[in-house]
Amino acid sequence: MDHLADQRSERILIVDDESMIRHILRTVVEAEGFKCDTVQNGQEAIAQLRENGYQMVLTDVRMPIMDGLCLLQHIQANYEGTAVIIITAVDDVSSAVDTLTLGAYDYVTKPFNALELRSKIHKALERRRLILENRQYQNFLEQKVQEQTADLQKALRKTKRAYANTLEALINALDAREHETQRHSKRVSEYTLLIAKQFGVPGNELMDIERGSLLHDTGKIGISDNILLKPGKLTEEEWVQMRKHPEIGYNILKGIDFLEGAAQLVLQHHEKFDGTGYPQRLKEDEILLGARIFAVVDTFDAMTSNRPYREALSYRVTREEIIQFSAKQFDPRIVECFLSIPEEVWFKTKESLKY
After folding, report:
1. Same structural domain for residues 343 and 217?
2. If you ran DSSP here, which 8-state letter would residue 37 be given?
3. Residues in Cβ contact with 84 at an 8 Å cutoff, skipping those fewer than 6 apart
4. Do the beta carbons of residue 88 and residue 96 sit within 8 Å?
5. Contacts from 191-196 at CB under 8 Å and sequence distance 24+?
6. Are residues 200 and 291 in the same domain?
7. What CATH number corresponds to the domain at position 229?
8. Is the residue at 173 inside a domain?
């Protein structure tokens, strides 16, 4: 094959302090069809590298001003796409071998074997090409991963919005059924989060607490309107039916993956700290923390909201009622946390949830 007729696009820089060596190397390199420049030391090589793009540098190790080792380190730090072949004397081969660990692609010894030198130049350039292609492919894959991650995050946000809208519609329907409790579910959900955050509940648990509070009355779907909307007091038989709504709600929600944690709060939202609640008669820490928080805020919302049979009670009266039933109906630690939140915060939250 006539290499002179096959002009290559790669550019090679030769660095050696001996003019005869530079001439020999240039002759071999240009015979292979490569473009070529020569300099006498590492300092001149650095200047050339700034001015031109080189795919390869052939450099001697021992040179004045700046030796080949320092030049190699400079190239590794600033021109990672440039292949380096070290030139060394026969008696300094061990030093040349050491440069391979520093990033040199190969080494050749003086006096040169032209065939060996040509072979090493081509192998080093081929290795460089493969490394660059692999790097480009890795960059391509990383870009694809970033794009797919962005698409996935967008889809997750869309799904979360759909979940939130679906839950909001369900809650509005539930609250609308009981005309005197409009926005009750949304209020108690916000109140529950208020205490949960103040109490130091980890962020990854807040979602279940929020959703469970929102959905606490889901089971009332299964309660007859004659009982649910009855204006007077319920009979004992009617209370038996009414007390089934936590279990009904739990059974509705438990098969929905993203609502499994919320379903447990729905099941327990009428349990009492002293064990006299329903349906499981759990007590103290047997009751989910979210359900214990909910018990306090549900009472707070019920007492501070208008009812057909009475006007909303004051914060002071509600506060005293909650204190009175601490350690009975309510967890004392939750009561203490409730009391630590100023009155204006509660009513500011309530005001923000009006239609």
Report:
1. yes
2. E
3. 56, 57, 59, 72, 75, 76, 103, 104, 105
4. yes
5. 191/297, 191/300, 191/301, 191/346, 191/349, 192/290, 192/293, 192/294, 192/297, 194/297, 194/341, 194/345, 194/346, 194/349, 195/293, 195/296, 195/297, 195/334, 195/337, 195/338, 195/341, 196/289, 196/290, 196/293
6. yes
7. 1.10.3210.10
8. no
Q: Mean per-residue pLDDT for 155-163?
A: 79
**Residue 12: strand pairing partners:** 36, 56
pLDDT of 274-319, one tens digit each? 999 999 999 999 999 999 999 999 999 989 987 766 788 999 999 9
pTM of the predicted model as reported, rounded to 2 decimal places:
0.57
Task: Find all residues with CB under 8 Å of 301, minimum gap 6, and list them.
Answer: 184, 187, 188, 191
Q: Indicate whether 332 belongs to any domain.
A: yes
Does residue 204 lie within any of the structural domains? yes
> Is 300 domain-assigned?
yes
Q: Where are the alpha helices (DSSP H) in 178-199?
A: 184-199
Q: Which of 37, 31, 27 is nearest to 4 (CA)?
A: 31
Q: Determine how many CB atoms are found less than 10 A away from the CB of residue 266.
A: 30
Cα separation of 351 and 53, whole Å? 68
Based on the domain organization, do 86 and 200 belong to the same domain? no
Domain with residue 7: its CATH number is: 3.40.50.2300
Q: Identify whether residues 313 and 221 lie together within a single domain.
A: yes
Which of 176, 199, 184 is CA-nearest to residue 301? 184
What is the per-residue pLDDT across 171-186, written as a single tens digit (0 to 9) for each?
Answer: 777 766 665 555 788 8
Are 218 and 127 contained in the same domain? no
User: Residue 243 burial (CB < 10 Å; 0-12/13-18/19+)?
Assistant: middle
Among positive and negative, which fits the CA dihedral 78, 92, 11, 23? positive
Alpha helix positions (H), 178-283: 184-199, 203-214, 225-228, 236-242, 245-253, 260-268
Q: Which two tokens stand for residue 226?
A: 């004659």
